[in-house]
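Page 47, continued from p. 46.
Same chain as before, 147 aa.
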Amino acid sequence: MRRVDYMIGLKDFAMLTAEQFMQDVVSYYHVEDMGDKLAGAITEGGFGSVPSLAKDGKVGGIVSEFDLLKTIMEGKDLSKVTAGDIMTRGQVSVPRDTPAPEIIHLLQSKHLIRVAVVDAQGKLVGIVARRDILLGYLRATKPIWTF
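Result:
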């Protein structure tokens, strides 16, 4: 479920947070899952990327279409590399209370499609896609928003 789907009424967009935009049902994989499994999930699920979790449940990185294509171009077999081998590491997650402008900056600076939302322990609680931010903007800034 995308929480932004239930946003009603005008709001200060800059004050909206990751928790208000995020989808709380998230497809994720583990760092030891194989690349071909992730490629199948991404293509069949229509995701641009999926979070990759370490054994402790914390977000270790994110595997994107870009990461998978780069691996193929390097001549590697996706069935022989793990998510941990190819994932984008570093800041690919935000806390629940991260404001919209910070999320947008992260998405743009890292060229991400989606960013994981984590709790205080670094465990996955949701995901925010660029599309969620755009929808949230429209819902927050237009008195009556229709397609």
